[in-house]
Amino acid sequence: MTTSRLKFSNPIIKDEIEIQSNSMGELVFTTLVKPGGKQAGVHYHTKITEVFTIISGELNVNVNKVRMILKKGQTLVIRPFDRHQFLNESSKDVLFKVQVTAAGEMQMGLQIIYGLANDKKVFKNGLPKNSYQAAIAIKMMDAFIPGVPLIIQKIGINVIAFIGSVIGVKKRLIARYCS
pTM higher than 0.90, yes or no? Predict the structure, then answer.
């Protein structure tokens, strides 16, 4: 079980993650989102469930085309296939706890995406410019976009991630951003 408090940030999303624990398939972390910070776009996961609990501030969340504002003490469960995105549209920081079940390699995927963002190796939307890096991180995070058939996304991501693993990209990403 990981008990050290690892922190990493993403200048594109304007947030900072602090890992609380990662064991037995559950990842727990806090996320601090600065005013104007937001995830690049609406996405969904096929395996994981996320539970957001607001510690301070207000978090705007879009879930399945429903827009809501979560306030201190409120909790929201994001289930597999729920299309979601978080935003901070307030003038103050928002801090919330995230519990992820069936997390798999999500922590490493986040560390890779955030590391690439800090190294300026991502597009303005926060996705890696390198296709192998993008596919590897996206696969680790079990993340998909609405509007493109899931089977097409899975085939494409799995093939590109596999090639990236074979040629050593995954190993280099883990060594650089996850050590």
Answer: yes
Q: How far apart are CA 15 and CA 37, in angstroms?
A: 7
Question: Closest Cα partner for 8 from 135, 133, 136, 113?
Answer: 113
Distance (Å, whole) CA 106 – CA 117: 16
Closest CA to 59 of 98, 99, 88, 92: 88
pLDDT value at residue 4: 56
Q: Furthest-apart CA pair in the chain: how many Å?
A: 46
What's the chain's length in residues? 179
Q: Are strands 94-101 and 26-33 parallel, antiparallel or unpaired?
A: antiparallel
Strand ranges of the sheet holding 49-56, from the earlier edge strand across to the other edge: 7-10, 15-23, 26-33, 94-101, 49-56, 75-78
- The pLDDT of 155-174, averaged and rounded, is 98
What is the residue whose two structure tokens read 């776009």?
Answer: 41
